[in-house]
């Protein structure tokens, strides 16, 4: 049971404070802030306790979302709830920031009144809440297509920004009450890849965690049908059709998804409510349908002058136009890179060399030679040269091969409506051992 | 000073301005004003002065304004109870409003105003709202009952709201059901004995039906409530499991974990051979793995839970080792937790993979993580015997890197490996000795010294090595000093000629120049031992040490059971029972897992849990402190006839027992022997001396009357297994000699000859004192009575249960093995008295030890009680200590 809920800015200013059960005073806010700022990196921040009170918090949008509880409640439901709450607030206010919260505090208090009663979570569905919420959101910024500060889903400056107006994603959902609102729906397939390649080039581990996320800005959308690849299969043994099946080990769905057509036609049927939802989550481990997108051929040796030589050759086995940034580890100075637009940097405190590659075309290969002066380099310390980690972002590509076959809305909405389907694969942890 | 004055005036001005706005005629302006008031309230300004003005705005049709006013009321009503009464009329009126939103709002707000006078007015509206036609109002009213109960429990009972609430469990709307369940669960918690939440198959059925329809949050309430139910039989348990299983694929991880909790609990009831049991095990793995794809905070919580689940049922995740491999960008707290689970899952099948990973981790940058990884390699070696050799070579590779902290950590774990596999990997000692100079941490130094002392006869310059440590004796930490003392004494006993000077030096350093009583006492004991009886000293100090246990850090079984009942909650994150951190009356009941199918007991006693329990229970685990102490107490205090499991100790007892250890000698004496185990708390007050007297009286009193008693014979080896040879027997102590009395019966067709007997190593070193006396051949259908005298000088190995004895009997046909359990009482000697001072001194030493040493100490403690081993009283205690400290 949730006792209190409060939202703090990163500086510790009280933005929202609501007491549900009268079990503790508001002075605990400062206690919390002291505790959370005193945490060191290696302490789990999840649960902190102060006398009989337990704090559970998350950080979203640069803000602390904190819940206190006195009983033996479930931190899972609290964290899950806080995540939902923050996305609700984002849906209602348009964006998550200190300013947006301050301007919409009345709306947020209204929300808090409905989502929690006496510390029991009541509902977090924006559809249900729509009926109860009276306040109108105040947008902190006028909505503009060309506002460059609105960074979309994909973070960095990829060409995606030109393809889909992702700034649309920072609209408050209730602006749909304005007749001028554009009706749009975004379906994003987002995958996170974690790969470990052994020093002998053998793929030791490869996992993909993916999700289909729907952002809906339709004033009224009664039903949406998302068709996945027909050869999509779940579980180890089940194979459907010919050719390379798109397979996942396990998947779970949002509770509003109707699965009656899933078994036969791989169609998800849902009535999307306003705002952002994760419709489906899936996971695949070990058996990737294709080879991992990047391979690295490292060689590490000691030259006659006692310097550490790291020669790295990176190969990308993908169709062209992919962007990658890289971070291998070592210690010292001097570098030779194969092309001018890359850069490399040595970070002494992490004992890491960063190799940044703004863009890497599929089917090509890059190489770099790092010469590092390491005081007291011995043959044993060669063992210490750590693994190479890659972090990258691959737009328009999914590791599992999952595709959205079609996206149908019914009844067909009058007026102009736009549908966007986007794919992206991120690196979660892509490790190549040396 | 002028500043503050200025500040107050503006504040006054602000409030004045707001007051004017609040009394404005324009609705918009009013609303804006109330918003401003609430904004000030949020940042912590005191706007209570505006109470009457805000309350005046309450009478409005504008729902938005009304909500804002209610928000203000909730905050300030408590500080202004008299004024709050002004609002009551509006509340009561609002409860009759045609708009269900307003009705619900009024009931909800009234419940939040914790003012006694208001609660009186609340009853009537609440009663109506509980029967309202709109489910939104009903679900709000259901929660309101819980609110009211918190303010005035008596009122709620008198008004009969609890019965209405119970009726709501059968409501048509699942949301209402969920809230009613949540409210009832909370109320029931404060009345542990009431039958409020009367769970029977009918209500369970209703809950399960509602489960499919309500929101995810409602599902959590219902699942948590289900977890408190104990099904009547395995069939009911299976049917509930079947209906809960679909929740495992829910996207909300809190729902998943609540479902896992229910399943883990009800699984206990299912027979293991049931197909469904296997299916369920398979179904549990994927959702648990999926939890790990969440953000690090959730991952951490998930891992803490998985850690519990893996300890209880390792088979669920045994094929999922890979998901616990560490990612380079995991936060350190997630990494450490994953590492822990990896070791728990390590088995012969996956050890190669695990070792390769651990070796990688040991070259990472993060020092803490690297240390833990190196330690993990050592734990693998101890856990999976087949891998020990590879682990050792991996560790040697790591030592070659010469990275200081890696080397130190590796030496600490190699010492543990030596403890588990003595005389097997001594070839690495030379490599270790090369790194002597780089050791600067006490633990590593102590470990190295132990190794040098233990293998002094194989290290040519052992005396030089130890002497080098001795130079800075006073600057070392106690741990190193104690170790050094023991090591040098060992060295002296092994090479007496060259090291006489050294040992004298260390003894005088320890006894004369040290302020540390532990060190001093140990020094004196060695000194006396060496000066009175060097042979005995050798026997004591160089005695064979018991092997260390496989898993040293398992959670104590009763606690684990309780934590399994709390999966997904804070308790599972802290790994502490809720009673340890939830205040007062709430949540003090200890939850238990239901007993397994078929067994009559509802609660497995902690000791039988691993042995007598289910067939594929986790590998034998040595009972941790609490248990052993429990054992000890039971063995001493219960009549000797009960060799079976001791009565199930309550959880309170377990906690008490652990406290005892923490508290050291005083409370141990008082509590352990002054009072029956059922009331440990009371006995803490027993004065030390009294407790001590009791102890000695007990020691004297227990042995003698027991000598005559022997339990009736039981069949140890049935004829079916013995190719016709049936052995039944018992143990007895006659005239100070332990005897094993057996009846051998030949049920086969042929004559049996050439009988011989052998014992496996056991906890107390029991061994046959002579050959098995079967002189004449045993013809078919003939029986013979044999009495075998036993002594306690055999090799020692800790058994589980402690009094287990594995026996091999050979005849002309084959060799047969069986195991039996002997009453501990037969080990007690009649003259078990001991000088008090000596006992006290040695005992004090033991209890001052740190926790890591408890395990072994306990095992010896119990042997300490069994005077069978106490051939030389003082010597024995020293033996206990030596092997302790040498650990």
TrEMBL record, chain A:
Membrane topology: Peripheral membrane protein
SUPFAM superfamilies: Second domain of Mu2 adaptin subunit (ap50) of ap2 adaptor (SSF49447), SNARE-like (SSF64356)
Superkingdom in the source lineage: Eukaryota
Domain MHD: 182-433
UniProt entry keywords in alphabetical sequence: Coated pit, Endosome, Golgi apparatus, Membrane, Protein transport, Transport
Gene Ontology CC entries for this record: clathrin adaptor complex; clathrin-coated pit; early endosome; Golgi apparatus
Keyword rRNA processing attributed: no
Function: Component of the adaptor protein complex 4 (AP-4). Adaptor protein complexes are vesicle coat components involved both in vesicle formation and cargo selection. They control the vesicular transport of proteins in different trafficking pathways. AP-4 forms a non clathrin-associated coat on vesicles departing the trans-Golgi network (TGN) and may be involved in the targeting of proteins from the trans-Golgi network (TGN) to the endosomal-lysosomal system.
Family: Belongs to the adaptor complexes medium subunit family.
Protein name as annotated: AP-4 complex subunit mu-1
Origin species: Xiphophorus couchianus (Monterrey platyfish)
Organismal lineage: Eukaryota, Metazoa, Chordata, Craniata, Vertebrata
UniProtKB/TrEMBL annotation, chain B:
Subcellular location: Endomembrane system
Keyword line: Acetylation, Membrane, Protein transport, Transport
Keyword Transport: yes
Classification via Gene3D superfamilies: 2.60.40.1150, Leucine-rich Repeat Variant, TATA-Binding Protein
Protein name: AP complex subunit beta
GO molecular function: clathrin binding
Region feature Disordered, mapped onto this chain: 584-620, 632-654
Residue ranges, compositional bias (Low complexity): 632-641
Membrane topology: Peripheral membrane protein
Record GO biological process: detection of mechanical stimulus involved in sensory perception; endocytosis; hair cell differentiation; inner ear development; intracellular protein transport; neuromast development; regulation of protein localization to plasma membrane
């Amino acid at each position: 049971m949730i006792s209190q809920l409060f939202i703090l800015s990163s500086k510790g200013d009280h933005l929202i404070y609501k007491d549900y059960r009268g079990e503790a005073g508001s002075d605990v806010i400062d206690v919390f802030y002291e505790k959370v700022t005193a945490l060191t990196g290696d302490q789990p921040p999840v649960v902190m306790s102060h006398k009989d009170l337990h704090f559970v918090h998350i950080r979203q949008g640069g803000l602390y979302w904190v819940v206190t509880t006195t009983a033996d409640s479930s931190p899972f439901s609290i964290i899950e709830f806080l995540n939902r709450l923050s996305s609700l607030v984002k849906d209602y206010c348009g964006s998550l920031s200190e300013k947006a919260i301050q301007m919409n505090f009345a709306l947020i208090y209204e929300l808090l009144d409905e989502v929690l009663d006496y510390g029991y979570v009541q509902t977090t569905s924006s559809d249900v809440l729509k009926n109860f919420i009276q306040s109108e959101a105040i947008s902190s910024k006028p909505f503009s297509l060309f506002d460059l500060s609105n960074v979309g889903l994909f973070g960095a400056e990829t060409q995606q920004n030109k393809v889909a107006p992702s700034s649309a994603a920072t609209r408050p959902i209730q602006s749909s009450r304005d007749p001028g609102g554009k009706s749009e729906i975004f379906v994003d397939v987002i995958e996170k890849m974690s790969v470990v390649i052994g020093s002998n080039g053998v793929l030791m581990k490869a996992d993909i965690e993916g999700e289909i996320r729907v952002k809906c800005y339709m004033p009224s959308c009664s039903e949406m049908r998302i068709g996945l690849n027909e050869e999509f299969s779940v579980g180890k043994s089940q194979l459907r059709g010919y050719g390379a099946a798109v397979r996942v080990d396990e998947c779970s769905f949002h509770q509003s998804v109707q699965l009656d057509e899933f078994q036969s036609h791989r169609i998800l049927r849902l009535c999307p409510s306003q705002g952002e939802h994760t419709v489906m989550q899936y996971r695949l481990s070990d058996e990737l349908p294709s080879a991992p997108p990047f391979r690295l051929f490292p060689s590490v040796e000691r030259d006659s002058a006692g310097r550490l030589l790291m020669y790295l050759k990176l190969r990308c086995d993908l169709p062209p136009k992919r962007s990658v940034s890289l971070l291998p580890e070592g210690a010292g100075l001097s570098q030779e890179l194969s092309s001018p637009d890359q850069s490399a940097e040595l970070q002494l405190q992490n004992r890491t060399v960063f190799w940044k590659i703004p863009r890497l075309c599929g089917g090509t290969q890059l190489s770099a030679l790092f010469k590092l002066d390491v005081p007291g380099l011995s043959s044993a310390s060669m063992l210490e040269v750590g693994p190479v980690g890659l972090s990258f972002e691959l737009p328009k590509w999914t590791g599992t091969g999952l595709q959205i076959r079609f996206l149908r809305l019914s009844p067909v909405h009058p007026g102009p409506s736009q549908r966007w389907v986007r794919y992206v694969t991120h690196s979660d942890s892509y490790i190549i051992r040396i | 000073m002028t500043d503050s004055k200025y500040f107050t005036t503006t504040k006054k001005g602000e409030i004045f301005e707001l007051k004017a706005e609040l009394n404005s005629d324009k609705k918009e302006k009013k609303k804006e004003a109330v918003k401003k008031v609430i904004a000030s309230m949020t940042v912590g300004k005191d706007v209570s002065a505006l109470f009457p003005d805000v309350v005046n705005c309450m009478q409005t049709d504008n729902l938005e304004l009304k909500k804002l006013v209610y928000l203000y009321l909730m905050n300030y009503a408590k500080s202004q109870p008299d004024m709050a009464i002004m609002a009551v009329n509006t509340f009561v009126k609002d409860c009759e409003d045609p708009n269900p939103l307003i009705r619900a709002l009024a009931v909800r707000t009234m419940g939040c105003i914790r003012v006694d006078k208001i609660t009186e007015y609340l009853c009537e509206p609440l009663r109506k709202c509980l029967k309202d036609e709109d489910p939104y109002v009903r679900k709000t009213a259901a929660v309101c009952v819980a609110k009211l109960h918190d303010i005035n429990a008596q009122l709620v009972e008198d008004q009969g709201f609890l019965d209405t609430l119970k009726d709501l469990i059968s409501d048509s709307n699942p949301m209402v059901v969920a809230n009613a369940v949540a409210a009832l669960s909370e109320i029931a918690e404060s009345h542990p004995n009431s039958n409020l939440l009367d769970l029977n198959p009918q209500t369970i059925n209703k809950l399960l039906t509602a489960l499919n329809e309500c929101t995810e949050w409602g599902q959590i309430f219902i699942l948590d409530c289900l977890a408190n139910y104990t099904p009547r039989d395995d069939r009911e348990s299976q049917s509930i499991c079947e209906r809960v299983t679909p929740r495992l694929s829910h996207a909300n991880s809190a729902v998943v974990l609540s479902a896992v909790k229910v399943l883990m609990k009800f699984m206990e009831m299912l027979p293991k051979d049931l197909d469904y049991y296997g299916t369920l095990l398979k179904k549990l793995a994927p959702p648990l793995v999926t939890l790990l794809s969440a953000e690090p905070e959730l991952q951490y919580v998930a891992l803490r839970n998985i850690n519990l689940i893996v300890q209880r049922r390792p088979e669920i995740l045994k094929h999922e080792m890979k998901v616990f491999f560490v990612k380079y960008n995991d936060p350190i707290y997630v990494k450490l937790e994953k590492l822990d689970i990896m070791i728990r899952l390590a088995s012969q099948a996956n050890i190669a993979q695990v070792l390769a990973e651990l070796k990688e981790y040991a070259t990472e940058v993060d020092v803490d993580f690297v240390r833990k990884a190196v330690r993990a390699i050592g734990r693998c070696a101890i856990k999976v015997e087949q891998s020990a050799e590879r682990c050792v070579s991996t560790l040697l590779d790591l030592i070659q890197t010469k990275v200081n902290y890696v080397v130190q950590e590796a030496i600490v774990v190699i010492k543990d490996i030596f403890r588990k596999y003595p005389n097997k990997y001594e070839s690495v000692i030379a490599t270790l000795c090369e790194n002597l100079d780089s050791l600067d941490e006490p633990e590593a130094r102590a470990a190295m010294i132990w190794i040098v002392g233990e293998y002094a006869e194989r290290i040519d310059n052992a005396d030089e090595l130890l002497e080098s440590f001795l130079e800075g004796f006073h600057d070392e930490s106690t741990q190193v000093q104690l170790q050094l003392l023991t090591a040098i004494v060992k060295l002296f006993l092994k090479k007496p000629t060259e090291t006489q000077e050294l040992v004298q030096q260390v003894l005088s350093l320890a006894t004369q120049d040290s302020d540390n009583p532990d060190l001093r006492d140990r020094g004196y004991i060695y000194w006396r031992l060496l000066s009175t009886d060097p042979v005995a000293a050798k026997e004591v100090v160089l005695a064979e040490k018991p092997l260390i246990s496989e898993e040293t850090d398992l959670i104590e079984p009763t606690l684990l059971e309780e934590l399994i009942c709390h999966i997904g909650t804070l308790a599972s994150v802290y790994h502490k029972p809720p009673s340890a951190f939830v205040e007062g009356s709430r949540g003090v009941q200890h939850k238990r897992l239901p007993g397994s199918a078929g067994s009559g007991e509802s609660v497995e006693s902690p000791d039988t849990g691993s042995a007598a329990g289910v067939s594929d229970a986790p590998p034998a685990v040595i009972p941790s402190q609490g248990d052993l102490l429990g054992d000890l107490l039971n063995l001493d205090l219960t009549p000797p006839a009960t060799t079976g499991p001791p009565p199930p100790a309550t959880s309170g007892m377990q906690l008490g027992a652990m406290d005892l250890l923490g508290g050291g000698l005083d409370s141990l004496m008082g509590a352990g022997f002054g009072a029956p185990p059922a009331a440990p708390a009371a006995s803490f007050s027993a004065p030390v001396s009294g407790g001590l007297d009791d102890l000695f009286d007990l020691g004297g009193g227990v042995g003698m009357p027991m000598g005559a008693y022997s339990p009736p014979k039981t069949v140890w080896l049935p004829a079916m297994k013995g190719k016709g040879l049936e052995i039944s027997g018992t143990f007895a102590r006659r005239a100070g000699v332990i005897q094993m009395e057996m009846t051998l019966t030949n049920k086969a067709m042929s004559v049996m000859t050439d009988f011989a007997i052998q014992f496996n190593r056991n906890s107390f070193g029991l061994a046959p004192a002579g050959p098995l006396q079967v002189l004449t051949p045993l013809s078919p259908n003939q029986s013979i009575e044999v009495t075998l005298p036993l002594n306690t000088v055999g090799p020692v190995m800790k058994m589980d249960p402690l009094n287990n004895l594995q026996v091999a009997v050979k005849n002309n046909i084959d060799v047969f093995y069986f195991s039996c359990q002997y009453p501990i009482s037969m080990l007690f000697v009649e003259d078990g008295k001991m000088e008090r001072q000596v006992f006290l001194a040695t005992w004090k030493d033991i209890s001052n030890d740190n926790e890591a040493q408890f395990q072994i100490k306990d095992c010896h403690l119990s042997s300490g009680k069994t005077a069978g081993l106490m051939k030389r009283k003082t010597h024995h205690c020293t033996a206990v200590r030596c092997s302790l400290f040498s650990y």
